[in-house]
Amino acid sequence: MCTNKNLLLISIVLTALCLLQFGEAIPSIGHYGKRFDPMGGIDFIQICLNNCAQCKKMFGDYFQGQTCAESCLKFKGKAIPDCEDLGSIAPFINALE
């Protein structure tokens, strides 16, 4: 007969097995030590280049997209620009006069 303790034990074991099976499928973007995550398919250089292109679309001539893209390649995607974070895109902003 199934008691509450048995049901609880079964649910805990099934949850642990699911976490072991599918835990690696969730990519971790916050880990900047790797430039490519083969399990999650994350390519940090590509993310960096895409963000440069997005910032160029948003800011137009005020944003140096070419310089941003070159820094992505030079630093292998270690510093990914965020268009809403002035600190991350400050090196690529120019003042038009």
CA radius of gyration = 22 Å
Topology pattern, helix = H, strand = E: HEEHHH
> How many beta-strand runs?
2
Given the structure, what is the number of helices?
4
Shape designation: elongated
How would you classify the helix and strand content by structural class?
Answer: mainly alpha
Q: What is the end-to-end distance?
A: 81 Å
Q: Indicate the proportion of strand residues.
A: under 5%
What is the oligomeric state here?
single chain
- Residue stretches low in confidence (pLDDT < 50, at least 5 long) are 23-34
Tell me the major beta sheet: 2 strands, antiparallel
**Averaged pLDDT:** 76
Give the helix level as a range of percent. 40-55%
Strand line-up across the major sheet: 1-2
Write up what this structure looks like.
Belongs to the insect eclosion hormone family. This is Eclosion hormone. It is a single chain. By secondary structure, the protein is mainly alpha-helical. The protein has a domain at 41-96. The protein is built from four helices and two strands. It has a two-stranded antiparallel sheet. The radius of gyration is 22 Å and the shape is elongated. The N and C termini lie far apart (81 Å).
How would you concisely characterize the structure shown here?
By secondary structure, this protein is mostly helical.
